[in-house]
Structures are given as C-alpha cells and as structure tokens.
C-alpha cells in the first residue's frame, strides 16, 4: 500500500514537473534542437538592384538556387533545412487588402510559389518581418497587422518567421508586439518557428525576462549583428560568456539563445577563426544559420560546416547550452554537457600574436570533476578528428591551439579505467599522443 501511494505520488509529481517545464517553453513542438539552415542577411544584405547585381540581389532566383544547392551539395543531408529570407523582400506598400506583398519584380512568382518550390526539395522556407512600423531597412512593419501578417505567412506556407524589432515604439509596444505575433502565429494552426530579437532591443532599457521570452519565442537574438570579421565573432563570444549566468539555463528544447549567423565560407575569418565560430556555436547550442554563398564556397569551409561530429554536438538531444569555465591569460576553456554524461570541451586561444600555444589543464576541471570520473575517452573533433585515448579523472591535458583558433574535444565518461585506478596525481604526465 505504502509503495502504491508512493509511486502514485511519484507519478503525479513527475506530471506536475512535466507541466511546469512545458509551461516555460513556446510549446509549438518546434526547434527541439537548434534550427539549422541558411539566412541571406550577412552575405547578401539589402541588394535590390537586380539589373546591376543579378546574382546577388534579393530575389526568388537567389532562394531557389540556394535551395537547389542545399539538396545537391549535401547540406540537407547533414541537417540544414530552413532556407530563410531576411529584410528587403517586400514591396514598399501593402496590397489593397492591407496584406504584405513581395516586390513584384524580384519575386514575380510570389512567396506561395517559392514556398512550394522549397518544399518540393524537402526543405522549409523562412521569412522576415518587423514588430514596429517599418523594418530595419525601411519596408512595411507589422505593427497593427500581427494577425493579418501571421495569416498571410501561414497561407503562403511559410515555416519560420524572423521577427525584427526596429522602430518598435515604446517598450510596452515592443513586448506586446512580440507576444501578439507569437499568439497570432499559433492561431494560424501552421507550424512556424518564431525567431525573435526581443531581448536585443529590450536590454538597453530593461533587463530581459528570459522565462517569458522563452514562453513566446523559439530562439532570440541577444547581441549585435554578426559581421564577417574576427572582432565581431570575438565580441559575440565575450558577451555570451559575460552574461552566461542569466542566459544559459533558460536554453533548451523549444527555445535557444541565438548568437546570430555563421559567417564561415565568406571573406573575413581566417581558417582558425572559422574553426572557432563552428566549435563555439556548437558549444552554445546556437541555431546554425549560415549566411554565405553556397555557389562559391571552399571545400574546406564546406567540410567544416558539414562536419557531422560538430553538428551532433550542436544538435545534442539533452539540449543544454554550454558555458565558459575559465579565462586564463589568453586561453578560454568552455564546456557543454551532452547526453549520456558526455561533455564537449573547447579550448580557445585568444592571442592574436605569435604561433601555436599550449594550454594545460586537468580533466578534474571538466563537468565539476565528473566528466572524466573515474575515466573517460577523449576524441578530438576539430581542427581534425583524432583519438586521444583513455584518461583518468586527474589526467593533465596539453592542448596546442593556433592563435584565434579552437580545439574541440568530446569527452565520454567510462565507468572503469582499465589500466589503472584513479589516483590523485595532478602532475601526471600527459600521454604523448595529445601533445
Ligand atoms: C537587423 C537585424 C539583422 C538583419 C537586419 C535587416 O539589424 O538584427 O539580423 O535582419 O536588421 O535589416
């Protein structure tokens, strides 16, 4: 009897916990792992002159071409799914029924046809709108039209909305706008990922309430727009680490912090900096939205963006965001808890002078001492795939990292260390294979 009551209580408690947890996230069933796809902004900006720039203007041709390549060049196979339109797709005026409409010259077939095309490839279509009176580039905003615009997107077959926050009016209007668009999207009955910039626009005035934001959004931008430059990637990482106490815990299936697009495959990052962006975006459980030109991308950048081991870390089903454990001179040590008690570990060398440097640390630093306790196997994922073999809970790891580069590891805990008992020996010599 006592056991039956106990287990009934246990089951009730479990349901209460499930319901409470469920109440926290936007439960539209989407973005259980971070969204993966392609987004035009960083690489193609607001190019609207198709006579002058036929291959890079914001037109249906551009998105159809990217959809083709996402399938033919293996992007879809590794998980990139959403082909996303950013700002500058609209006509400067709404139609005679107040609906948003695409620029007729650049999108002559209309968005419904484009969505059909993207869907015929097994992909999904993303679109962009703004909570205020105008988009950031000056096209019509959704203020006053949230229900109509949500319904228009649903009718077109859109699968993701990036909702920007320019020209939002008052703080109340900003918050109300983000909430109302979320409700309007849900009301359409169509599954539409809701990508917000709410905390980015809110923060200068007041501290974002992330529990509330996660209740309404599938992901949300916190920090400035990414540029194709190392200082931009570096600043994004630094901001994230400095605010990790308030943003890491809220992330999880259904709702993610969004540090903005991947700029890998463009012009501004060195190879090591591209490795850093990919590794750290995996650690941060970030949406992987590439902004590059899939028609012209180096085999090396493609290898990195399609690396299945890094993608598996980014998409880990546990859905916990990683964090910085230490910042030691020029080295940063980050970790991310993964399913099965494993950890992803990134060692970033921030020094912008000199050559490769060695960072040494004990495995006892990882996972609060549990990642490698009593033993673990370590696999290097980036810059190259390499087996580092077995280690115990106080092994000393020596990791050599290029300037502004990152070494990404996966640490898998194992119950028993086969050859030796775990002993407290901080000065244990590292095995030569990791030097
Ligand atoms: C803002 C957003 C960017 C992009 C532009 C478009 O700056 O943060 O990601 O959408 O607007 O105008």
TrEMBL record:
InterPro entries hit by this protein: Aldolase_TIM (IPR013785), GH (IPR017853), Glyco_hydro_27 (IPR002241), Glyco_hydro_27/36_CS (IPR000111), Glyco_hydro_b (IPR013780), Melibiase/NAGA_C (IPR035373)
Keywords (A to Z) from UniProt: Disulfide bond, Glycoprotein, Glycosidase, Hydrolase, Lipid metabolism, Lysosome, Signal
Listed GO CC annotations: extracellular region; Golgi apparatus; lysosome; membrane
CDD domains: GH27 (cd14792)
Residue ranges of domain Alpha galactosidase A C-terminal in the record: 319-405
Coiled-coil residues: none
Enzyme class name: hydrolase
Keyword field contains Lipid metabolism: yes
A matching Pfam family: Melibiase_2
MF term (GO), any: signaling receptor binding
GO biological process: glycoside catabolic process; glycosphingolipid catabolic process; oligosaccharide metabolic process
Catalytic activity: a globoside Gb3Cer (d18:1(4E)) + H2O = a beta-D-Gal-(1->4)-beta-D-Glc-(1<->1)-Cer(d18:1(4E)) + D-galactose; a globoside Gb3Cer + H2O = a beta-D-galactosyl-(1->4)-beta-D-glucosyl-(1<->1)-ceramide + D-galactose; Hydrolysis of terminal, non-reducing alpha-D-galactose residues in alpha-D-galactosides, including galactose oligosaccharides, galactomannans and galactolipids
Annotated EC: 3.2.1.-
Subcellular location: Lysosome
Biological role: Catalyzes the hydrolysis of glycosphingolipids and participates in their degradation in the lysosome.
Subunit and interaction comment: Homodimer.
Similarity comment text for this entry: Belongs to the glycosyl hydrolase 27 family.
Protein name: Alpha-galactosidase
């Amino acid at each position: 009897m006592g056991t039956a009551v106990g287990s009934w209580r246990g089951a009730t408690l479990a349901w209460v916990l499930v319901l409470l947890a469920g109440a926290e996230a936007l439960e539209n069933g989407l973005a259980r792992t971070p969204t993966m796809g392609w987004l035009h902004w960083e690489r193609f900006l607001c190019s609207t002159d198709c006579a002058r720039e036929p291959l890079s203007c914001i037109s249906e041709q551009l998105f159809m071409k990217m959809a083709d390549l996402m399938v033919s060049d293996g992007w879809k196979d590794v998980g990139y799914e959403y082909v996303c339109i950013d700002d500058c797709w609209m006509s400067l005026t709404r139609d005679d029924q107040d609906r948003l409409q695409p620029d007729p010259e650049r999108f002559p077939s209309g968005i419904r046809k484009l969505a059909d095309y993207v869907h015929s490839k097994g992909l999904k279509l993303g679109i962009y709108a703004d909570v205020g009176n105008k988009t950031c580039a000056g096209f019509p905003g959704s203020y006053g039209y949230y229900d109509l615009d949500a319904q228009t997107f649903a009718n077109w077959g859109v699968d993701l909305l990036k909702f920007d926050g320019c020209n939002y009016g008052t703080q109340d209007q900003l918050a109300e706008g983000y909430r109302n668009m979320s409700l309007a999207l849900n009301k359409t009955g169509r599954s539409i990922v809701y990508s917000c910039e709410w905390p980015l626009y809110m923060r200068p005035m007041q501290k974002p309430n992330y529990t509330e934001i996660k209740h309404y959004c599938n992901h949300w931008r916190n920090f400035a727009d990414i540029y194709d430059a190392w200082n931009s990637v570096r600043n994004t990482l630094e901001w994230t680490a400095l605010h990790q106490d308030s943003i890491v815990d809220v992330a999880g299936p259904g709702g993610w912090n969004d540090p903005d697009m991947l700029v890998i495959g463009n012009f501004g990052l060195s190879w090591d900096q591209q490795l850093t962006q990919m590794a750290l975006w995996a650690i941060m459980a970030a949406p992987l939205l590439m902004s590059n030109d899939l028609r012209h991308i180096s085999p090396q950048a493609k290898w990195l963006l399609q690396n299945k081991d890094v993608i598996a870390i980014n998409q880990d089903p546990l859905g916990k965001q990683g964090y910085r454990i230490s910042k030691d001179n020029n080295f940063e040590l980050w970790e991310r808890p993964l399913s099965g008690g494993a950890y992803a570990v990134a060692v970033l060398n921030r020094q912008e002078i000199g050559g490769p440097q060695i960072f040494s640390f004990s495995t006892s630093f990882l996972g609060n001492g549990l990642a490698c306790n009593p033993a673990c196997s370590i696999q290097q994922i980036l810059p190259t795939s390499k087996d580092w073999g077995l280690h115990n809970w106080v092994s000393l790891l020596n990791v050599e990292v290029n300037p502004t580069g990152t070494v990404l590891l996966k640490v898998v805990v194992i119950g028993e260390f086969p050859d030796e008992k775990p002993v407290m020996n901080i000065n244990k010599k590292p095995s030569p294979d990791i030097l």
